[in-house]
Structure formats: structure tokens, C-alpha cells
């Protein structure tokens, strides 16, 4: 099966604020159309995986599309920064 080239530069630094993900080698058998070790936007990967799940008629309801056991993540806003942006607060959220 042909792999998708979602981003052919595997070690390009993440853009500020963009959440990225890549498939872990040990999970490659679960996602045969995705390249391993390639960082791309998590939103793009989520759309690709969701389409594949629909094609395979798999039931993944109630689960995240990109599970941490199969994907690595980097970038994006931290939960604290996201909470500040969403609430309009100026001070950090207590943790």
C-alpha cells in the first residue's frame, strides 16, 4: 500500500502554536498508509486517521483519533496558555 507524504521534511521545527504529531514505529502496522517519523500537523493526521477508520468500518467512538500509545506530539499551546486564551484571563491558571 502506498504511503502518504504528509510532510517530507521529518525534522522541521514546529511552528509556534501548531500542534504536531508523528506515528511511532511500533504502531506502524496499525496505520499502513501513514509514514513513520514524519512530523505534521496533528489536525491533518487526525483527518487522515479518521478517514481511514471510516474506510475500515472500525468503531473508535469515544476514543481520541490520535492516541498517545501510537503517536508522539510536540508544539501547540500548553493547557495553561490555552485556558488563558479561552477565558481571557491575564494571570496563570493555578495547577
What do you see in this structure?
- By secondary structure, the protein is of the alpha+beta class.
- It has one domain (19-87).
- Helix content is 24%, strand content 13%.
- The chain contains two helices and three strands; from the N terminus they run E-E-H-E-H.
- The protein has a three-stranded antiparallel beta sheet.
- The longest helix is centred in the middle third of the chain and has 14 residues, at 42-55.
- It is globular.
List the helices and strands and how they pair.
Layout lengths: L18 E5 L16 E2 H14 L15 E5 L3 H9 L8
Antiparallel strand pairs: 1-2, 1-3
Which properties best describe this structure?
3-stranded antiparallel beta sheet, 3 strands, alpha+beta, 95 residues, disordered N terminus, globular
In short:
The protein is built from two helices and three strands.
Principal-axes geometry comes out as: globular
Mean pLDDT: 74
Q: Could you list the spans in which at least 5 consecutive residues all have pLDDT below 50?
A: 1-14
Q: Provide a count of the helices.
A: 2
Give the helix level as a range of percent. 10-25%
